[in-house]
Write a structure and sequence with these properties.
Elements (H helix, E strand, L loop, with lengths): L11 H35 L12 E3 L3 E3 L2 E9 L8 E7 L2 E2 L3 E2 L3 E6 L2 E8 L12 E5 L9 E8 L4 E8 L6 E3 L3 E3 L2 E9 L8 E7 L2 E2 L3 E2 L3 E6 L5 E8 L12 E5 L9 E8 L4 E8 L1
Antiparallel strand pairs: 1-3, 2-3, 3-9, 4-5, 4-6, 4-10, 7-8, 8-9, 10-11, 12-14, 13-14, 14-20, 15-16, 15-17, 15-21, 18-19, 19-20, 21-22
Length: about 290
């Protein structure tokens, strides 16, 4: 009698292991695809990574020297020539520090209500900071006297590269000689000057009795209107016999009025510094 054949059946535990392996493989595949997709999206929306920035340079400056209305100094060395986008500049006046500004051929800054200009003289014209380039710090009318200026060359991230310091000269001491009468007015000479300064550093004014006019910059010929006691126009001439165009000993001032000065009137001539400070006065009573 023959035995009926039996049908083989799969082990249930083996089936469960297979399903588990398939599930784990699917999870890993999904994770890999998600990571790759995230990298692709990151590259699309953020762009390529920025290139590494240039290494910060070193620089040295020469000694400062005075120029008309300011001071200057030379760049004696830089470790590598770079364009202006790599730099900023900053100026401090005594203890007041201005706001950094990007390097350019001319930079205007305002500190303590005074306007300064920083000039970058690019000696070779390459538009890169190199040795032999010069910096000037100037102010129309001259720098405030006895003031400490600190120029700072900064890296583009505001870190310091190099500084230069300069102290402006004190106001000069001026003395006047005695008054002499001339036609339609009076005159006097500059007897002494502790320093020779350009006319932009000075102003002059005239007072008639108790009424004072409006100060004007020093020039070879000046006009001041004094409204009282009688409105009158006065001419002030600065005679510079040496022709150096600086105020120094031997120069002369002449104050005249067409038709002559009013009798019994006291005149006070004021020599002022550019900031309005009185340097010297001279009086004359007609």
């Amino acid at each position: 009698m023959s035995q009926a054949g039996s049908t083989s059946q799969q082990d249930p535990s083996h089936k469960r292991r297979s399903l588990l392996l398939v599930a784990v493989g699917s999870v890993v595949a999904i994770a890999v695809i998600a990571a790759v997709l995230a990298q692709v999206l990151l590259g699309v929306f953020s762009g390529p990574p920025p290139p590494p920035g240039p290494e910060k340079i070193s620089a040295t400056f020469g000694s400062p020297s005075p120029v008309t209305d300011g001071f200057q100094f030379t760049v004696t060395n830089v470790s590598r020539a770079l364009g202006p986008l790599s730099f900023k500049v900053k100026l401090a006046v005594n203890a007041t520090v201005g706001t950094p500004a990007g390097l350019d051929t001319t930079i205007s800054l305002t500190i303590i209500s005074l306007s300064y200009t920083i000039v970058w003289a690019d000696s070779g014209g390459e538009r890169t900071l190199n040795a032999n380039d010069r910096f000037q710090v100037i102010r129309p009318g001259g720098l405030p006297p006895s003031t400490v200026f600190t120029f700072s060359l900064l890296w583009f991230d505001d870190s310091l590269v190099q500084t230069e310091q300069y102290t402006s000269v004190p106001r000069p001491v001026i003395t006047f000689g005695s008054v002499n009468v001339i036609q339609d007015g009076f005159m006097f000479s500059v007897a002494g000057a502790s320093g020779s300064f350009a006319p932009a550093n000075y102003k002059v004014n005239l007072q008639v009795n108790s009424t004072i006019g409006t100060a004007v910059p020093l020039a070879l010929s000046m006009t001041i209107v004094v409204p009282a006691p009688v409105a009158a126009t006065y001419t002030i001439a600065w005679l510079d016999p040496g022709g150096e165009r600086v105020l120094n000993a031997g120069d002369t001032f002449e104050i005249t009025r067409s038709g002559g000065l009013q009798p019994g009137t006291m005149f006070t001539f004021y020599l002022l510094w550019s900031d309005g400070t009185t340097i010297q006065t001279q009086t004359y009573t007609n």
